[in-house]
Amino acid sequence: MIITKQMLIEKNACSDGMNFFETHFKDQGDYQEILNKLAENGRVDWASWLLKVFGSINTTVTIESEFEARFAFFAGSVIFKKSAKVEFSLIAGSGIKAGSGIKADEGIKAGSGIKAGEGIEAGWGIEAGWGIEAGEGIEAGEGIACAAVLTVAYRIFAGVS
Known about the structure:
Layout: E1 2-4, H1 5-10, H2 15-25, E2 28-30, H3 31-40, H4 44-54, E3 60-63, E4 67-69, E5 72-74, E6 77-80, E7 84-86, E8 90-92, E9 96-98, E10 102-104, E11 108-110, E12 114-116, E13 120-122, E14 126-128, E15 132-134, E16 138-140, E17 144-146, E18 150-152, E19 156-158
């Protein structure tokens, strides 16, 4: 999906966000590439806004190796064939799936489901628009929320330090 400067104006993007967009993309940019650039710059606030106003798209990014990043934002779904470790926030417009564990020192948020072959851990909260499923435990420093089914093979902790 291509996002244009005009589309951002129509959605009332803030002036700092517009300046960022113009600096990196001029008049238009690919949705996922914009999210990647926001992740590089630690702009979870702008990435969250972008996902809120433009929503999820029907794409899947597949990552074959162990994944480590400071921030990670995806316009659609993401499949980590192994594990995912994010220093701050992991956000997907649709689902998040990992063959192993998923860990974010801050939050994990998916527009649909979150599924991990092992554990799911977030320093703050875990939120899914559908279900959450873990082969082992689920742990969140604050809350755990899902709109449908929560399935865990081992244990759940929320609001613990």
